[in-house]
Design a protein that fits this description.
heterodimer, A: about 575 residues, alpha/beta, Rossmann fold, six-stranded mixed sheet, 22 helices, 21 strands, about 35% helix, B: about 300 residues, mainly alpha, MetI-like fold, 10 helices, about 0% strand, elongated
Chain lengths: ~575, ~300
Amino acid sequence: MSGPALLEVDGLSVAFGGRPVVDDVSFSVSTGECVAIVGESGSGKSVTARSLLGLSGGRVSARGLRLGDTDLTALGERGWRAVRGPRIGLVLQDALVSLDPLRPIGREIDDALRLHTPLGPRGRRERALEALVEVGMPEPEARLGQRSGELSGGLRQRALIAAALVLRPELVVADEPTTALDAEVQRLVVDRLAALRDGGTAVLAISHDLGVVRRLADRVVVMRAGVVVETGPTEQVLGDPRHEYTRLLLAALPRGVARGARLSPAPSAPERSAPPAPAATAENRVPNDEPRSSAVHGSERGSSRVGAGPAPEVVLAASGLRRAFPVRGSAPRVAVDDVSFELRAGETLGLVGASGSGKTTTARLLLGLDDPDDGAVTLLGEPWAPLRERERRARRALLGAVYQDPSSSFDPRWTVGQLLADAVTSGRVTRPGRVSTEVEGLLDRVGLAADVAERRPGTLSGGQRQRVAVARALAPRPRVVVCDEPVSALDVSVQAQVLDLLDELQREEGLAYLFISHDLDVVAHMSDHVAVMQHGRVVEHGPTAPLFTAPQHPYTRALLAARP
Amino acid sequence: MTVLPVLPGAPGPSEPSEPSAPPAPPRSGSGRRRPRRRVRPVEAVAAVVLAVIVVAAVAPGLLAPGDPLAVSPADAFGAPSLAHPLGTDESGRGIWTRIVHGAGASLTIGAVATLIGTGLGVLLGVAAGFGDGRWPGRAADAGVSRLLEVLFALPGLLLALVVIAFTGPGAVPATLAVGLATAPGYARIVRTQVRRVRRSAMVEAAVVLGRRPSTVLLRHVLPNALAPVVVLATLGLGQAVVWASSLSYLGLGSPPPAPEWGAMLSAGRTYVQVAWWMTVFPGLAVVVTAAASTVVGRGLARRGGTS
């Protein structure tokens, strides 16, 4: 399967300010092999990858760090420059910030060639074109002259890969290459990296997405808190994990887990009043290849929906929503076109689609942050949009929202206690002291300790912040909560906890959720019904299980096929 | 800040999704996330100077017990000496005494003018920036922005002269004039800041929670938008002092007998050949005040995260 080890890492440690971040990590990558490092944020996986390029920024020590015959530990800055690019290519996570917005991508690629090859302008242009064709860039000729801002996320990521590949490095390090990309684009990027590996290049992929790892990697290195906890062939590590942490990561994956089943270990807090949900054990986890069917494996509530009982009350209904944005010098861009659906108490409607398909605009229309050009939204049978904000304000409490990036939705000057006091009292009180019981109650409901109230959101972890966001959304006792990509910025294990929390709260409060996500597995796990959006229109809409097992619309089929 | 990474060209140590802090040198131990920003020597000196100037403004008698207006023809045009450390003017009044007693006037004019400037700037900036792109807000933004552009077309000091042309000279008109002349700059910054906060997810979240526009403005937009303005105001204080002195120098500010720095400069101009101390020291007072408040303002700006 693979040749001799190209990259050998033996006892690598990296410390920042005397604090070890990576501790005694050893692994190797052979030519034609892909090794994946997985782990959550802060596990040291990115720092490990960057050390291989001399970019970690910390104090690096290793018993051995070799690329072929080169001892990387002995390199000076000049030596590193001869390795970075020609011998090790780096593909970064965020192509938007990794590409200079002022320079055409052709120039970015050209730079590498000019520095490291004797080619003339003609030859360099040909090589750059070749590299773009190789990464599957449509219309490569035209792309050479475009800047990163003119490209979509997927095209930017491909441009970045092309820039890393153009010098034909022996080793490609890909740091979260698919994070923040749509399923379809993700698939393309993974295919590129796989083709590269099959062509004899060694690939080191850093990812927290186990689906991507499963498709791409030959071997997996699992890291936690700077230490390798498990390593081995992909099938063995992901199929039969030895270490408890690896098992935890795998259990956290929503793929194939029945609606209502827990993804994370049950909380130990004894005062938790929620009815215990069945854990994601072997019995209720559906085999991975086959989408789950809630009729067979659903939780108690899930099956009652399938049963003949009366349908729950409709709390929010959108009919014929349309919103177009004027574009200077051309026809208006229709972001949302004739979108209709109903949200019922205690049920979740999942909204999926590629980025730019109108999911977030739909959410904004429901939240009354933007008014539809046509169509209407009713909340509990009364008109909600279009309506004047003044007439709507009194009923705002019925509708809550949880956003993708909670930290930007909090006033940075406020502590968690102030945020929640403001939300509990409809803005009358912003000192947590007078309503501390309510604030503590809210924190407890979302599984946070009472002393979190004194901290600022900026000092909390991503998962804790999202819990605070959920607590704030629940404070006015809403009936409907709009969740716009609530977990897409979170690690898989934290994502599992937040999803479990949302599920639990829905069961307790009978909340209706509109759950927006680009992650089909998450939507399948969370939703009773799913609406698929493309170019602003709902192309398919129906109960989750049939939609996932027998999609009708070609676009739904394409989306499902693109899942990693 | 000179925090040297161990290896050059280093991005942050943490995962890319986290805010990355440059690695602190090992000796600073705990402060890994937020590198400590030490007070630079020049900032310490500037702060001390500013403190002395404030003392002079509040209690001039402490630093210079004499009377700044007491005329003593016998001592006229005295070079710096023990009795008069900075010399005397054409009427035998001590320059040191007059500078110290003039600090109050100069600083008051500067501070009040800055207050007027920032106050007006906040009003105009909020009016222009708080709208949501629909009718009333949009019209306000267009109106205020065009007005600001007209005002920006005139140099600040010229604008102040125009105001004085209407009101006539004097300390109060000069203050007003400098305040009005500095307002457009503040207004434009406030407008940008207000728009930034207005469009943030935080304000959207407040709207979703059902907060009124007034609540949103007072509780979220103003506090978050004004932090950089407060810092800029300390920077602007020095400029306001210079402008106020300039107006006095031109005879448009405080009338002659008052110990005002600009007026003293103007009076000394005639005798610059025989009594250099009459112009140099009041001029230095203006420069030192402006420089000290600018350095302190810059220091605050660095810490406040405003560039």
